[in-house]
Every structure is written in structure tokens, then in C-alpha cells.
Amino acid sequence: MLQILKHRQFAPLFLAQLVALFGTGLATVALGLLAFDLAGEKAGLVLGLVFTIKMVAYVGIAPIAGAFADRLPRRKMLVMLDLVRAGVAMMLPFVAEVWQIFGLIFLLQAASAAFTPTFQASIPDILPDEQDYTKALSLSRLAYDLESLLSPMLAGAVLLFFAYQALFVGTIIGFVASALLIFSVALPNPKPSEPRGIYERTTRGIWIYLATPRLRGLLALCMAVSAIGSMVLVNSVVLVRETLGLADVHVAYSYAAFGAGSMIAALSLPRLLDRLLDRQVMLSGVAILILAHGALITVMMLGQFSFVSLLIGWLFIGVGYSAILTPSGRLLQRSSHPEDRPAVYAAQFALSHACWLICYPLAGWMQTSMGSEVTMSVLTVIALSAALVATQLWPADAERVIEHSHDDLPPDHPHLKDSHGHVHSHVFVVDDYHVQWPGRP
């Protein structure tokens, strides 16, 4: 897997992703502590609203950015967005009111909503070979996991000597370093898509996404991930500080356990994906996710909840989380042409974060109003229901090469070259010639 780092274009991009993630990870810990400092036992509600604002920015901005990503110089766009994020991070240490957190987070995440799908769509253009791309996806997932594991540890070390506001300095450094690394790489600009109206350009990625069965299944799995993941990200600080009465540093360790589980899965996935279908791996991941969360609920009900049980639960949830999200890039690559890829990646970014938009405020509100056991039970039911829906939307017998007909095209149409009549077979991707999946509504 590490051999992919020898690629001259991918290596700086991976390093840029890594340093930006470390900066973001430090900010995540700092924001949790800032929320607790400003709101006390209502920190879960504040964080739920913070993450909700983040999702609103993602859902609203990403499709628009994806519609125009193939029209702008990709490198300049990414560098400018990194610098915007660094500028916003500079203001976070000076926040004194909760409403200020909300405003700055919206600006920060609006820039991220434009940055992330554009960055992700650049990788398959650099690495067209699927095996190389799979390694890059696993390495990218590993970057997220290393951040989840190491940045909380780094945050814990910093907190031993400094106030949590110092963590935001690491965020600024991360974004600036990412901008410099991206600037050092000559990114290929994709072939522009056909001229279309603004509305069609904005919605095209979502149309392709929702017309593809495996991507509809992926969206259902994203809802399961969001339901369980929101408990980890929103309420860890409450479980550790309020329920268990532990210190700030233990909050960082709880995030690290989640990251460690995700890293274990990421390291195992390249070999697993060579032997198993994406669907098998991802459905196994959601099963692990739900069972681990259910086990934690049982421990709570028995009155045996402890920091060790929380760490073990978060570890296994991290495994399931990574097993679902890591292969998702392969599904997006297979389901789109290069010129449509930025829009489809933006659609995944927006639609998956729409799931978080539902679950983040739900997790924060229920934790504050009803307590941990009820909150976790409701989120588990949501995840289980979403997993069952995914098995129906993404059929086990789905094939990439599908025989289909084009009765609406003339026999001499270029798309029907080397075909016998109007019927032919090829890797099926939703586009202007294939507007509906064969045999599917």
C-alpha cells in the first residue's frame, strides 16, 4: 500500500491531506472543550448545533462547487480554499460567545464543502488504475485514522502545558502547509463537461447518484454511519466529562480509540477488497458498527459502563466506520465518467452529509433531554433500519457489465459501434445515453 507514495503527484497531495487533517483534529478537540467551557453540561447540544451548521454548509455548498469544479483551475481553487480555512482558524481562539462559534464554523465548513469533493475527485484522475486507486483510498482512510489516533494524543500532550486555545495554532499550521503542498503539484484539470444550464450542472451529480443502485445503497449505509458516528463525535465529551467525571485528556483518548479501530480496518481493506466484493465488506462493516453500539447500550443498562468499555466500544465502531467509508470511493469512480466525476463526488459529499445533518442535532438534543441510553437506542434503531434498506437498494447480483438496448438511437449512432442492432453490453454508467438503470425503477 505504501508503494503508492512513490507516485510524484499523489505523494504531496497525501501529505497535504494528512497535515490538514491533523490541524482539523486538533480543532475538533479544542471545539469540544470550548463548548464545554461556554455551555457546561449543555455542551452536547452546542456541539450538535455546531455540527449541524457544518452539515448545512456541506449540503448547500458542495453541489454548487461540484457543478463548477471542472471550469476552474483546480490547483488555484484548492490553495485559495485552504488559505480561507486558515484565516477562519485564526479567529477561533478569540471566541467568547456561543454565537461566534456558529458564524465562524459556517465560514470554515463552507470552504471545506468546496475543497473536499474537488480534492477527492482529483485522485482518480491522477491514479486511473483501480488497484492504485484502491491503495490510495486505503491510505487516505489511514490518514483520517492516524489523525483520529495521533492528533488527540498530541492534543493531550499540549493540554498538559497549555490552555486548549493553543490547539487552534496547529489548525492554522495544517491548512497553510496543505496549501503549500498542493501549490507544489501540477494537478490535471478534467475534460470540461458539455455546456449545461446552472440548474442542470448543479443537480447532474445528484441525478447520476440517485439513478445508480449501488450508490443508493451507499447512501443508506451513510445514514447508518451518521447515526452511530454522531454519538461518537457529539457526545464523547459529555460521556467522558459529565457521565464518567474524567478530565479533558480522556476526551482525547476516547477519540483516539475510535481512530485506532478505523486504522485497523484501513490497513486490512486492500487485501480484503482483492478477495471480497465491496458490498460484502461494507455490509460487514455496518454489522460491526451496530453490534458494537448495541453492546455499549447493554453495558449501560447493566450499570457497568466505564471508560474501558467506552474505549472498546468506540474501537469496534471505528472498525465498522472505516469498512463502510473506505470502499465508497471505488463505487463513485465506477459509477461516473471522468467529466462527471467532480459532480458525483460532490453529490456523495452533500447527500452523505445530509444524513449527518439529521443525526447530529438529534444526538445532541436527545443526549441533553433524555440521556445516553435512550439516545443510543434510537440511533441504533436508525442505523439498523438504514442497513436493511441498503440491502434492498443495492442488489447482491448487481453487475458492472450489463446487456441493454438503445431503441431511441439510430443504428449508425457512434455509441452503437461494434454492436448488433440496438442491444449491446458494456460497463454501465448513468449518463445522457443511459438515463435509467436496466430493470430498475
Describe the structure.
By secondary structure, the protein is mainly alpha-helical. The chain has one domain (9-393): Growth Hormone, Chain: A. The protein is 73% helix and 2% strand. It has helices at 10-39, 43-68, 74-91, 98-126, 130-159, 167-183, 198-210, 213-243, 248-275, 278-301, 307-325, 328-334, 341-370, 372-393, and strands at 401-405, 423-427. Strands 1-2 form a two-stranded antiparallel ribbon. The two termini are 39 Å apart.
Instruction: Please state the overall shape, judged from the principal axes of the Cα atoms.
Output: globular
Sheet of most strands: 2 strands, antiparallel
Number of strands: 2
CATH superfamily: MFS general substrate transporter like domains
* CATH top level assignment: Mainly Alpha
Q: What is the overall number of helices?
A: 14
Low-confidence regions: none
Strand content: under 5%
Mean of all residue-level pLDDT scores: 78
Integer count of domains: 1
CATH architecture: Up-down Bundle
| Amount of helix | over 70%
| Oligomeric state of the chains present here | single chain
Quick synopsis:
With 441 residues, the protein is mostly helical.
Question: Which characteristics define this entry?
Answer:
441 residues, mainly alpha, Growth Hormone, Chain: A, two-stranded antiparallel ribbon, 2% strand, membrane, transmembrane transporter activity
How are the elements arranged and paired?
Elements: H1 10-39, H2 43-68, H3 74-91, H4 98-126, H5 130-159, H6 167-183, H7 198-210, H8 213-243, H9 248-275, H10 278-301, H11 307-325, H12 328-334, H13 341-370, H14 372-393, E1 401-405, E2 423-427
GO molecular function, one term: transmembrane transporter activity
Keywords: Cell membrane, Membrane, Transmembrane, Transmembrane helix
Main location: membrane
